[in-house]
From TrEMBL:
Organism of derivation: Catenulispora subtropica
Sorted UniProt keywords: GTP-binding, Hydrolase, Nucleotide-binding
Record-linked SUPFAM superfamilies: P-loop containing nucleoside triphosphate hydrolases
Pfam families linked to this entry: ATP_bind_1
Classification via InterPro entries: Gliding_Motility_GTPase, Gpn, P-loop_NTPase
Protein family according to the UniProt entry: Belongs to the GPN-loop GTPase family.
Protein name: ATP/GTP-binding protein
Length: 197
């Protein structure tokens, strides 16, 4: 598999027989762009813009002192596992961009929701948006450096996750870690037969 850092064009392998659209969702600043960039085998499409004064009072930058840019439409990447090509659509995290979700979610089979333990309360709106659209999903805690670690049962309770919703951890900067979180979603969809339909 090629990587986003490769200068070669990464065409689909001849073994790919199925393609699937998935969302990578989460609140503002949780690491969606980083996740898609690290796990994608092609150079990802990014729609990032510099945060300007127009964001003051609109986007909650609390706890995100180093955040200087934001996704204004979507991120896009691709990862293949065996005979399945996963097309990854990273959603914007701010409330003002939620109307775009209807288009981004159209045709998606599921979603990987990234959360940050430093700002778990910011995940409620995103989880509601995924559930409202009837998408099966898994949750991955993006473990930021210096963030406090919590037992899975405490995170599950704080997010009010159903017992059947898979919960995992990842480092969105790391390709292997991100791929493992993606595999949890694929296995969840396969167990529900969403990937077999």
């Amino acid at each position: 598999m090629g990587s986003a850092n490769s200068s070669e064009v990464a065409y689909l392998p001849g073994t790919v027989t199925r393609s699937v659209k998935l969302l990578v969702a989460g609140p503002f600043g949780v690491g969606k762009t980083t996740f898609v960039g690290s796990v994608s085998e092609i150079k990802p499409l990014r729609t990032e813009e510099t945060i300007t004064e127009a964001s003051v009072g609109v986007d909650d930058l609390a706890g995100l002192p180093a955040k200087t840019s934001t996704t204004v439409a979507m991120d896009f990447g691709r990862r293949t596992f065996g005979g399945v090509a996963l097309y990854l659509f990273g959603t914007p995290g701010q409330h003002r961009f939620l109307p775009m979700w209807d288009e981004l979610a159209r045709g998606a089979l599921g979603a990987l929701v990234l959360v940050d333990t430093r700002r778990l309360d910011h995940s409620d709106e995103i989880l509601s948006a995924v559930e409202k659209r009837g998408l099966p999903y898994t949750v991955a805690v993006n473990e930021f450096e210096g963030a406090r670690r919590y037992p899975p049962e405490e995170i599950r309770e704080a997010l009010d996750l159903a017992p059947t919703t898979p919960l995992t951890v990842c480092d969105a900067r790391d390709q292997s870690s991100s791929a493992k979180a993606l595999i949890v979603l694929v296995e969840h969809l396969t167990s529900r037969r969403d990937l077999l339909a």
